[in-house]
Each structure stands twice: as C-alpha cells, then as structure tokens.
Amino acid sequence: MSAHASTGTGAKVNDVATGTAVLFRGLVDDAGLFPPTGLPMAEALERHRSDLAGDDPVLTHRFLCPAGRLAELRDHLTFPIRLGLILDTPGVPPLEPLESLESIAVELVEVRQAPGETPGAVAERLAGRLPGGARLFVEVSPGDLASLPRDATGPGLKFRCGGLTAGAFPRAADLGALIAHCARHGVPFKATAGLHNAVRHFDPELGVDRHGFLNLVLAVCAAVEDRDPVPVLKLTDVGELVRLAQAVPDDTAARARELLVSYGSCDTHTPIEDLAALCLIDRRPPAPATPGTEGTEEESV
C-alpha cells in the first residue's frame, strides 16, 4: 500500500481493523436461485430468511431474482425483501404490480448488453422503464474499453469472472483492465461467477485458474491507489493476501468499496467461512445448515 496513505489502519473494532471491516461489509449478494446451486424458489427464500436473521455484515441481504421468475417470487414471498432484478427477458417486464408491493424494494437492475451495443445505449433503451430508485448495471465482456462509461452518472458495469467452462474465465490482464478503467473514471461495478472462494487457485477439472474474491477486492484497492491491479489478481500466496488486506488504509477501503458494489454468490456461507478462517472478519457461531450450500463452484447470474 502507498506510504502516504498508511494512517488510519490501526483502529480496531472487535479485534478487526476498521479498514478491513469496511472492505468486506455488504459484499455478497444472494444468488441462490442461479446455477450451480439453483435452489427452488421456496428453498432459496427460506435460506435468505435465515441469512437475514443471522445479519452477517459480509452479506448485502439483497436477493437476486431473474425477471422471468417474478410471478413465482410473489407467490412464495412472505417477508420484506431487497431485490436485485436480473433482466433475462427480452424487455423489461411489467413492474407496476411489483412496485405496489410494500414487501419488495428493487435496488438494482442487471442486464447483459447485446452484441454491438454500448452500456450507454442500454441505459437509453431502458430509460424510464426501471423501478424508481433502482440502479442499472450493464454486463460487459473484456474488450473495447473505449465504449465503457467514463463517469459515475451513467450505468454501472458488471463483470463475469468465471463460469462452467475454462473459456468463461477472463484473463487477469483483461479483468485488471476493466477494474483500472472503473477506478480511473469512478464507475461503480458488480461482479459475478467464479468467485466462490477467497483466494485464486487452480481448478484441475477445468484446467484454469479461478479468480478469488479476496484477490478482486484487493485489486480494486490497488487500482484506487493508482497501482496495477493485475499482480494482485494473480496472487496465490495466502499469507501475502492476508497481509495486504490487513494493511489497507481506511480511506482506500472506502474508495474501493464505492467502486465494487458487491458480487453475486449462489453460496452465502462459504465467503464468510473463508474470511473468518483467514482472520479477516470476526468469527461468528456457525450458521445452521440450509439447502444448497454444499458442492457449489460458481454462480452464473
């Protein structure tokens, strides 16, 4: 970390450095409906209710739901929910009934850009058709940075960090270029897929390195300090990653998390367990077993 920003890291809350606590607060969206977990709606909502009761600060307590399953969500919902809406339909579905439900607050809308379409064009196409107050995030692929927003007034971005095949995992250089762009221009972004565990590691079945969510968070910290995020994305040394996390200054942590809004995970327990095992968050009593938390690898929101 830069020497000029070394102050403010000594303050501790419950034995965890303040900057470290900020790094992981509200980091993980609940993507339990999505593969490979793919919970039925009732089970996904029951797990979400359990997570709400546990109130772990690592979780956003935001539930991600495809637009095509909104009717099913309404049929099963029995408690208030904060929603991230994934547009898997050709257009925006009628949202008036959804907005009229006091139990549902739509905070985010996420959509993939069509081939040849820019994030700005997506925002124009959906202008006036999103729930009031919802922030738009457009999923982009590594490639042409020139078409991406260059300020925080346009749509946010969404990066896919993995999938079910080796080709779905972006190179560290490509992911790093997207992160650096967002840091340079103040564009917030979300991430999804492939970020099941904290630390980058090799997957022998796919023959590819899986990105770690701790690597991702620390790469954003590097970018906001005008350093290259790629070396941090490539780190596999657990001890070094922990040392870097513990040394993040408070102001860097705050700026990094203004950029990295959250990432979607079909497993809401493993990220907490990983961070606790690395002593980067306070260890809490183990959560009760809930459906769909075993054997997950990557989400495909």
Shape: globular
What characterizes the major β-sheet? 8 strands, parallel, barrel
Numbering strands along the chain, what is their spatial order in the largest sheet? 3-4-5-6-7-8-9-12
Individual helix count:
11
How would you describe the overall organization of this protein?
The protein is α/β, with parallel strands linked by helices and 301 residues long. The chain is built from eleven helices and twelve strands. The strands form three sheets. Strands 3-4-5-6-7-8-9-12 form an eight-stranded parallel β-barrel, surrounded by five helices. Strands 1-2 form a two-stranded antiparallel ribbon. The model is unreliable at 1-14 and 292-299 (pLDDT under 50).
Provide a brief overview of the structure:
It is built from eleven helices and twelve strands.
